[in-house]
Amino acid sequence: KIMITGALGQIGSELTLKLREIYGTDHVIATDIRSNDSEAATSGPFEMVDVTDGKTMLEVAKKHQVDSIIHMAALLSATAEANPVFAWNLNMGGLMNALEAARETGAQFFTPSSIGAFGPSTPKDLTPQDTICRPTTMYGVNKVSGELLSDYYYHKFGVDTRGLRFPGLVSYVTPPGGGTTDYAVEIYYEAMKNKAYTSYIAKGTYMDMMYMPDALNAIVNLMEADPAKLLHRNSFNVTAMSFEPEQIAAEIRKHIPEFVLMYDVDPVRQSIADSWPNAIDASAAKEEWGFKAEYDLARMTEDMLNKLK
Ligand code: VAH
């Protein structure tokens, strides 16, 4: 059985449904700090879990006899930068509690890292799997610390921890909250509503991105990969594409010719974006467990606009 924390978030809400499709509804326990009327919360087992409460998290894991814990609950980059102490306590306290629950129950473990784990001194183009990770954001400090802590639990306690450094994720089911890459989600909603969007990220700012279906497949494929083949664990670079705002606007114009892109740069999120790579190298994920992305910018744009009709 699989327990997901942050199951009502941007990734969690779609991951819960996908895992229920694959492994059976009753085998996937969705948990979050609050409930709602979404399909993830109502289509199968759901428990209220505040990840800063390790006692309850362990009780829920034992009650359902889980053998896999997928820890998704966290604050994203912009929110973390606005509340750094709260971000440390939630992101690192929650992760420690989830790793401890995995250690106590013997469960397999997944938590996402991010391209946010890289910083200004990291090579920006074809960013290697093994490289300098000195991020200048609280979110990045949380992600690098999380990778180190997850590797520690593997080496020290034998917990089967695995992770992915996700790029910006684009989706239409549960809009993200508090990210830096979220402009690439908002632009599609605004294009449908107003045929225009004002980007808080400047022209020419390249960032790695991925469509949600590819992200969900990557989690399942990594978790099912043969552990003997894994030279890395926390966490694998994965990406599908890299683009800057003008490129996504040009793709949208193939469907909405009158679409207009304007700019009103947010200095905080721009500085976060500027500290991240332009395009990372995902060859370790391809070699060690066959990572492959199916959606490029053209295919993602077509699907997003169709789904938002
Ligand atoms: C964020 N969407 O913007 C997340 C992600 C790589 C970006 O970590 O914070």
Describe the protein's architecture and organization.
The chain has 309 residues and is an alpha/beta fold. It is 43% helix and 17% strand. The chain has twelve helices and 16 strands. A six-stranded parallel sheet has the order 3-2-1-4-5-8. Helix 3 packs parallel to helix 5. The chain starts with a strand and ends with a helix. The structure holds (3R)-3-hydroxy-L-norvaline. The site of (3R)-3-hydroxy-L-norvaline (VAH) has 14 residues, from strand 10.
Q: Structural class given helices, strands, pairing?
A: alpha/beta
The helix/strand series, from N terminus to C terminus, equals EHEHEHEHHEEEHEEEHEEHEEHEHEHH
Q: List low-pLDDT spans.
A: none
Strand arrangement within the widest β-sheet reads: 3-2-1-4-5-8
Radius of gyration: 19 Å
Hetero compounds: (3R)-3-hydroxy-L-norvaline
How confident overall, as mean pLDDT?
98
Helix coverage percent of residues? 40-55%
Number of helices: 12
N-to-C terminal Cα separation, in Å? 36 Å
Q: Largest sheet, if any?
A: 6 strands, parallel
- Give a count of the beta strands, DSSP E runs of length 2 or more: 16
Strand content: 15-25%
**Overall spatial form:** globular
Family: Belongs to the NAD(P)-dependent epimerase/dehydratase family.
GO molecular function, one term: L-threonine 3-dehydrogenase activity
Domain NAD-dependent epimerase/dehydratase: 2-225
Organism: Cytobacillus kochii
